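Quick one - first record:
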Amino acid sequence: MPAMIVCEAPAVIDGDGIRCRGVGEVRLLGIDAPDRRSARPCRGQYGNHVCDDRAAAASKASLRAGLRLGPVRLQPVKRDRYGRLIATASAGGTDLSCWQLRRGAARYIIRYDAGRRVGRTCPTLARPSH
């Protein structure tokens, strides 16, 4: 994976995903945010997803607030099976996965945390959900 990149024109997709101009969709490493009931994971009833419209909206708003902390920088980790970039992301020096965990807007999922990066960055917040 390439070195650190700047996320141009970051936009929130949901509580654990952003879109960056020239990069596309980026999933935040190590976390899972609630999904809307109409989202694919909830409609298909696969996996252990939290399906709650109100919680999904709050998580999205939390991440939007996190993006306002400053320039967003990405450290790519890998691509998922859908081709999305999985990365650590920070805004103004604040790790956005930790931000979401601290605000109760997402849960830590150890199997999503390649190299246990999030677990090391915010160990008091990263308690495995499964």
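second record:
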Amino acid sequence: MAAPLLSEAEWDALCNRARENDHPLVLPCCGSSGHCRISKLGTRHFVHYRRAACSWQPETAEHLLAKEAVIRGCHAAGFTAKSECSEGGWRADVLAIKSTLRLAFEIQWSSQTAEETEERQSLYAKSNVRGCWFFRRTPAMLKPQNETPAFELNFEDRAPVVNIGKRSCALTAFTEALLTRKVRFCGSLMALPQQKLLIAVAAMKCWKCHSLSTIYYIDSDLRTACGAEIPVEDVTWSDEKLEFTPAIENAVISHVVGGNLPKLGHIKRRFSRTIKRAYVSFGCANCDAIFGDWPLRDFILENRCNENREMIEVDIALPGPYSVPVPHWCFAESSQHCGITMNQMNGRRTV
């Protein structure tokens, strides 16, 4: 069993037997003998005697602590975890094993290029082993991809933490989530079907009759299951704007009736002489003149600078799936991951 998984009593007994030569410790990397040690961060591990002839290099306290966290995560996910396993030209910091599935975890605390990472990853692939990387600094040219799982690792209050998107997660919990398929590679960001949106309402002057009419716009992003955000502008710049969903329009009308804002004009299809076609638009409540997309956009940009703009909150079921093509590793506590996973797209399994 890996050192981090031993109880205090088991660890003490093993160290005592090793010191008395009653139970010699044999290290898996080279078959030479070693001894017990505890790092400055409190990680229990095994090390070589100084005279050992091995290419192994001493590990930092942070590296050891990260390995311990990965091992605990593997154990929590029902995997066997082995430290410093080697085969076919590679050596894994931690090798997770369950039935025929093998996954190598690498804690890369020193700098490494994307090319070096992919080269080392190919060695794992030749052994039918999946590789997963935790980087102190993720290589600049290494883009999110299903073939090479890679995540940023740092320490908060001396504890290893994984950064994924806008979220952070303890390394042990993240390892368990990865092995239990709560982390998957997805080709797009997809908004949750149920959203709580902030709607800004404002009075806009008509270009034709100069009277005031209410317009409104969504002033928040769409949320995804993995905590990412999709700017509304990325998915609603068309005739079927999300703003024109009846649930939002009705909420604004109710707000206008009970407040001091002018009337909301009819939302309908109008002809624009500027672009010489008709589209669904806001309009003047007095003369029905079209509030064109470009003047409206300028008005909204200016209104967003007003810290005291009037806001309402609306719960809404989206009328359809809203997604943008952003490949990413999706960490969702539920099984509702973003978009279509690469596993579904091409038949290959994810981590």
